[in-house]
Amino acid sequence: MDTKRAYIDPEHPDPAVLHEAAALLRAGELVAFPTETVYGLGANALDAEACARIFEVKGRPQDNPLIVHVSRPKMVDEIIAHWTPAAEICARTFWPGPLTLVFPKNERIPDRVTAGLNTVAVRMPDHPVALALIEAGGLPLAAPSANLSGRPSPTTGSHVWEDMRGRIPLILDAGSCNVGLESTVLDVSGDVPVILRPGGLAKEDLEKVLGPVELDRPSVTGVPRAPGLKYRHYAPRGEMYVVVGPKDHVLDRMSEEIKIGRYQHKRIAILCTLESAPQLQLEQPDLLYVLGSRTQPQEVAASLFAGLRLCDQRGMELILAEGFDEGGLGLAIMNRLDKASGHKVIRV
Ligand code: TXA
Ligand code: MG
Q1: Ligand 1: residues whose CB is within 6 Å?
Q2: 185, 164 Cβ separation under 8 angstroms
Q3: pLDDT for 113-163, tens place per residue?
Q4: Pick the CATH number of 4-215 from 3.90.870.10, 3.40.720.10, 3.40.50.620, 3.40.980.10
Q5: What tens digit of pLDDT does each residue of 262-282 get?
């Protein structure tokens, strides 16, 4: 299949391009589009066959449900059984934004979308192109991240091109995503809201309006309540370790690991903060990728997946990443680093 990559200005999305994309979606085709978190691979959420194609194209496990994207809260009414007070507060406060809410579903949403669950995950993305596309099609869009299953989520049009070229008819390329990590998935159906996947909206921000929020910890409970979390994800091809602890200890350990890797003739990449870069540069790794300043976690979040992809592009065999505190966005950053490394976290 020929894939068209249409560049689209996020400030002034070209109506002709949106029209073309909407027509493809209505005809049951897939279109990749930008959101503020990561790029999505969209299909008409009410079309079971189109949604089945998403799983084929990504190589996605069949039991991993999709998030449905809407442009107005009213659209949610058409696909859910009912709102809860917590869901209303969240939608009012954080939509459009990097928060996905899990609702009891109604019969209009095909089982294909929810992988047979009786709940449906919904979010309103904070990106002018995503919102305009949903409006142009007049359809809710089921969309997972637009990467091949297992790879880091795409945060630029080029990442989507890398993974989806030849597999879908159209990619809307609006450059980089601001948030860079996927949305926080929150189950608001019970008495206490539960974060099923930490993401671009911090737990602390949710707690300001909801009171205490729980965190589903699959490492403790065994089975994650967001089915997608049991799969290996974000993994670069090289062997990856995350080093966590006081800065001096982390730097010493990373320097030591670089020396060992060099002795083994490995191509070595470092993912680190701006603050640690000067010292680690002295060890001359093959790639030194600065994630951002430790004081600006949103910079780190926005650059992380691009860094992991760069390691693959440059053929890195050993990847050492500096760890972060788990407050604020740090929780989601550490969640992605943990998964990307296959849980190889070294505490020093
Ligand atoms: O930011 C995002 O959320 C991006 C953009 C494109 O919106 N989308 C995204 O989708 O990350 P995906 O498919 O890569 O991840 C969706 C996650 C999976 O872990 C899935 O298991 C979980 O949400 N999920 C979806 N529906 C669910 C449901 N009904 N109950 C529990 N978890 C659900
Ligand atoms: Mg994904």
Answers
A1: 35, 37-38, 40, 64-67, 100, 102, 114, 117, 119-121, 125, 143-145, 182-183, 185, 196-197, 225-229
A2: no
A3: 999 999 999 999 999 999 999 999 999 999 999 999 999 999 999 999 999
A4: 3.90.870.10
A5: 999 999 999 999 999 999 999
